[in-house]
Fold this sequence. Notes:
0% strand, DUF6124 family protein, 3 helices, mainly alpha
Amino acid sequence: MFNATPEFDPQKLDEAAKRAIDHYLDPKPQTKQKKNSSQLFAVVESATTETLLANLSETLASANAMLSDLAFDLEGSRRHFALGVQQMIELSEMLANRALDIVELR
C-alpha cells in the first residue's frame, strides 16, 4: 500500500536541523580576501572621519596653491579656465573645513 507520509530517518533529520541552526546562529567568521587590483593607493579602513577630512582639506589647499601659481603664468581663456578650476577647489576646501569643524565639535 502507498504511504502518503514519507518516513524520515531521525538521525538525518537531526543532522539537517543542526546544520541549519549552525548556519544561521553560529556563522564562522569570514576572512576578507584581498582583491587583485592595479590600484596604487588605498585608504585604510581604520581611518577616522576627522583624519580623512583633515587630509582632504590639506590636499585641496595644496591643489589650490599649485593651480593659483599656474593660473598667473597663463593668459586669456586658459587663465580663466584655471581660475575657474581654482575656485571650485577653493569651494570644496571650504566645504571640507566646515565638515571638519562639525566633526570636531562632537
